Amino acid sequence: MKSLLRNEPIEILAEPEDIKAMPDLLQAFKSTGKSKMSNRELIMGVTVKINKVDVKVSTLAAVRPDWKPHLHLEILDVLVQSTNSSWEVAELSSCKKVDTANDSVHMYKTIAAKSISVTLDTDNKGGKFVFIDQVPLKLHFTTKWNTKEGYWVGGDLEMFYDDLSFRVTTEEWKTILDFVKCLRMCFGRAAPEIVIETNTPPTDVKKNEEQKPIVKVKKPQTSFSLNIDQWVIQISEKKEGKLQGFKLQGQGLKFMYDKSKPTKTPPLTETVLSLMVPTVQLTLLNPSETASPILVTQNCKDMNHIFTVTINWFLEPADTVVGYIIKQMNVNARLVGMQIEADMESWHQVIKLQCLNKCTSCIQC
Hints:
By secondary structure, the chain is mainly beta.
């Protein structure tokens, strides 16, 4: 779907020279009231197709005086469809699951993009590099709403990549780190306080109008998971016409973050963070004939994950700056069948990579 109003890319984030106070958008959204479930179901049932999405992100020159970072995100052929709970495109009547016991309804969406590319400018003279190039993406999105009051109860987002490659040189990796520093400095700038006008006249209240009871909204339960079938992370540099560096690759990876899970002892809530990796291998680029892989995984029975780590913590509401305290934290890690080898050539490359962002010259490098 091509926009009839604007064909130019829209800058979602452009850091201004001077920061001005903005109105409380969240408060304004809350004051509009809740919409009817029938209207929300109609919106959720719409199929959306977008041919191209351009997003530009830019900041001021904060790390290098002659460089204003500029990030360009391009997404092609986006398709948003309603599905049933099995993620199959179906009739709208079967694209929701009603839970009468808890006065809630689940709605399901799939979002597919044929290609995603991310480009970052390396300087202000036209230099740039693409560190994510035409990667397809699929999303499963679940939303949960309260049917009586119409407020959002929670949602789940699951992201799938078939093959994700991230290959950069050492200079490009420095540029990425500098861009992250610029973003941190941008978001760390002090913003002026909002001036609230006290001379506004009070709103008229009808005498016979009944006051609506205040609805106590529970904290939404949300989760995010990332699934990658094949992945490669490579950091390298050219020396004497050959690439030198590291390549970390594997098959299968799952990252999961589940926030505000209810527990048997309210008002405690549980948050879970986990990472599961079935196979992984770390090797040198263009190694000598005698060099061997630094890290390899052995075959596991029943395709068990070679490495798993799970962190969960329990939060309790409290009168603190963040609004809660950590009542308990648990960490569980599991490692099966891993082999690590490091010869002198490997150690030399490891030291060189560690010195990358700390010095420009090193006697060991």
